[in-house]
Amino acid sequence: METITLSFGFSNLQKALDIFLNDFISTYKSLLIRDNKKASGNLINSIKSLGIVYINNKIQASIELASYWKYVEYGRKPGKFPPPDKILNWVNVKPIIPRPLNGIKPTTKQLAFLISRKIARDGIKAGNQFSEALDLVWSRQKDNIENAVSLDLESEISVIKIK
Fold first, then answer.
1. Over the stretch 30-50, which tens digit does the pLDDT of each residue have?
2. Is 56 exposed, middle or buried (0-12, 13-18, 19+ CB in 10 A)?
3. What are the helix (H) ranges across 4-98?
4. Residue 6 and residue 8: Cα distance in Å, rounded?
5. Burial class (CB in 10 A: 0-12, 13-18, 19+), 72
6. Can you tell me the distance from the alpha carbon of 48 to that of 125, in angstroms, rounded to the nearest whole number?
7. What is the reported pTM?
8. Contact at 8 Å (CB) between 9 and 54?
9. What is the pLDDT of residues 65-75, one digit of tens each?
10. Dist CA 81 CA 122 (whole Å)
């Protein structure tokens, strides 16, 4: 009994996926800006490509981004108060200028509390910019990826020889 192992190089696919990943990051950033999700710019500035890797017979494209991206994407259900320090930082960065009510102007800490209370009571609406970016980029890049796979397979199949 003899075993034949076929190995395939996917250089065209690697290039196509790199283009896909860079297009995704650019599109995601522009959608966040479009939807006014740039308070401090921390989320947008945190988005970086970690590249394409092959792990356990799968191709994985990885990006790095601020951990709170999921609240921007999926929103937040009503219930608990968000972390007060995060809301206070957001109030300071945005900047939100409190309006006086009955002649009393709230401090930034009081304003952060009021915002936190509203989030706890009503939640935060989902933004869906991540999902929208994936859909847009896939529709633009799908043909490129399919062509890259075809080119890679054609070139590899033509060099396979059994002796």
1. 999 999 888 788 899 999 998
2. exposed
3. 11-34, 42-46, 69-74, 84-93
4. 7
5. buried
6. 25
7. 0.79
8. no
9. 999 899 999 99
10. 11
**Which tokens is 41 given?**
């710019």
Six-digit token pair at 126?
């989902």
Q: Which residue has the tokens 């320090």?
A: 85
Q: How far apart are the first and last CA of the chain?
A: 15
H or E element, residue 142: helix 129-157
Token pair in block for residue 10? 């996917």
Tokens standing for residue 28? 């995601």
Q: Determine if residue 36 is left, alpha or beta; phi over 0 gives left, psi from -120 to 50 gives alpha, anything else beta.
A: left
Helix (H) / strand (E) containing 110: helix 108-122
* Helix 129-157 × helix 11-34 angle, to 10°: 170
Q: Which residues are bridge partners to 59 per DSSP?
A: 54
Q: Which amino acid is at 111?
A: L
